[in-house]
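[Automated response] Your request has been received and processed.

Submitted sequence:
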Amino acid sequence: MHRMELLFFSFLALLLICHGNGDVYIVTMEGESAINYRDGIDGFAATADDSIEGMDITSESVMSYSHHLEKMHDELLDSLFEASSYKKIYSYGHLINGFSVHLSPDQAEALSKAPGVKYVEKDVKIRKLTTHTPQFLGLPTEVWPTGGGFDRAGEDIIIGFVDSGIFPKHPSFATYNSDPYGPLPRYKGKCEIDIQIKRSFCNGKIVGAQHFAKAAIAAGAFNPVVDFPSPLDGDGHGTHTAAVAAGNNGIPVRMHGYEFGKASGMAPRARIAVYKVLYRLFGGYVSDVVAAIEQAVQDGVDVINLSVGPNSPPSTTKTTFLNPFDAALLSAVKAGVFVAQAAGNGGPFPKTLVSFSPWITTVAAAVDDRRYKNHMVLGNGKELPGLGLSPSTHANKSFNLVSASDALLDSSVMKYNPLDCQRPELLNKNLVEGGSFFVVKKVSETAQSLGAAGFVVAVENSYPGTKYDPVPVAIPGILITDVGMTKELIEYYNCSTKRDWAGRPLEFQATASIADGLAPTLHNSAPQVALFSSRGPDVKDFSFEDADVLKPDILAPGSLIWAAWAPNGTDDANYLGEWFAMASGTSMAAPHIAGIAALVKQKHPQWSPSAIKSALMTTANTLDRSGRPLQAQQYSGSEIMTLSPATPFDYGSGEVDPKAALDPGLVLDATYLDYINFLCSIPGVDSNEVLSITSSRCNATHGKPADLNGPSITISHLVGTQTVKRTVTNVGETETYVVTTRMSPEVALEARPPAMTVLSGASRVVTVSLTVRSVTGRYSFGEVLLKGSRGHLVRIPVIAMGFNS
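Generated structure:
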């Protein structure tokens, strides 16, 4: 028997558990950060103006004030503790005012009571949350030509990757077949030197490469032998995400002598800035991530891709949006940086998101139209479907099936373990040679070393949440994931195998053949929301009360994504030593949006991050390629994957449409002050907490959270009638728009005016009213649709749950 444990045992990663003396803490201080400083006291000129987005964070005044804050942090620590009893790790001065420090718990308690200290929070870990998707999204024919072709798509836009580093020698990042990359004086980042080859990680395509591990080192988790104290990617994840967003165009994906297409990033001419925070054995720490985000903004990136998220919520703040991580990202957005973050891989269950805040673009993962299927044919004529990215067995020929348990060299003295199918020294080559192996890289290698014609991995016990992806292998092979099909295979094998009185096999008469699984099939029922993609509703606090924010924001391809890989990457044992990998996760979806945002930024360099987010969301698709409403992969009652109608809690505003996003007609823009007012309007929020985290005071009148001028409307507790306003700005030519609404019958939705002409560059207000008609205890979904006379279609999703009081 070949149980599911085989797959789990094969891919377990070792965890390094190491404890230093004390812990790492993130400390938030009173006083503005450089990006928020506007009082002009203590001899420093004001650096910030709330009415201005995209400030120069590299200016002399900003740098001077940041150094002033760092000095204050040092003086505070020196006044409290002996120098040898603590270690300050980072000073944060640009995006937040604070620092991280390694202390004992008693010292942390004393620090929390010191004058000027707001919060002392124990650091937490973070975790990791393409050949075909450019075509699937229409980039080569509909988007790249508008920017000068693929060799100019994303020109001079810098994407910062806060991830596991990069493998710089990969052809996806090479410069030898491209036009020379000119200097970018506005980018202030640095390039570390590869400690092994003594050369810079940068080449013009890669413009920055730094690693952040001080918190991990202080926590005792960092092992320099395996974790690489450099930007070198020892995992594979960072190389993959960088290539999805900004990898070179037309790079052949070759494995085992076969080509699986040509890879390209979304913005193949964009520059790459690497900020390594993830490591092989332990993941990473929020302290290091905040330092990397701050450095990336200070260096001058245009876009940040975050395919990472915290393992656990912060403990000192009541509101999900108020913590050092999200506060740093709010300041990054104020500095003009667009942030794409993976939604998380906790689906299909609700409220599993790891990205909460409205200033972040939270990306859900879709299954696109490319699927890899295969099948095997048994000697009795039965066809069993499965997964197998492999060549077929020889045409018109079947091969004998031999179970790994029956192929043990000495079954009388040892009991079969599923891991044995990965150990050729335990198996009888004379039995296996020329046959097929019944029980996915080691299994393939074992079968190949024994001279088998192919192999089968059959799942006998299925576990909820198990995700199966096809793995490229050099010989015919297939993974049977359907437990029912496995039972048929076992019954056929047992009935066809002759045994002696002790159950030892005498003759193998079961036969099978494996079809060709190298070519994908294309489906019109795409995209679909991937089963693993985290779902909304968003939550406003850690008692999981619903927030008046739509999350996720948008859907992008995130399943079976081919892209570059680090040959020494250990994230997936099936791709160890390979230069490409096919990976799945919202980690793969986020860089699609980061790359497309770079294309929008290239065409509209003056747009704010919120305007780019609006353009992506209001033009998104809610229909699949066959014209039907989007569907989401879900579990049925028996925990078998099925499809159900998708909602905005699955896909946000819909599947990204890059062509439409470049020319959205109208955008809904939000300023830094709008986000502060949003924070102040959250029911039950502590205004002192808002001041502590953001250094901004709450005004007496701040409205309700749904008043935030974003490209969606969410009201989690609708009583009677609530009216919200949305200001739309025309970023195209003068156009007349007809305004219509659609909503589930439990809630009445009205929008005024019914029609309006918006001059080029001008703004108009749309007033939207929602009224409870009946209370069902469920959310209602709808939309406000603005249809322009020049062909623009602007869609604002509306979500509400009605209550009696």
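Summary generated for your ticket: The first strand starts at residue 23 and ends at 29. The chain is about 20% helix and 25% strand.
If you did not submit this request, please reply to this message.
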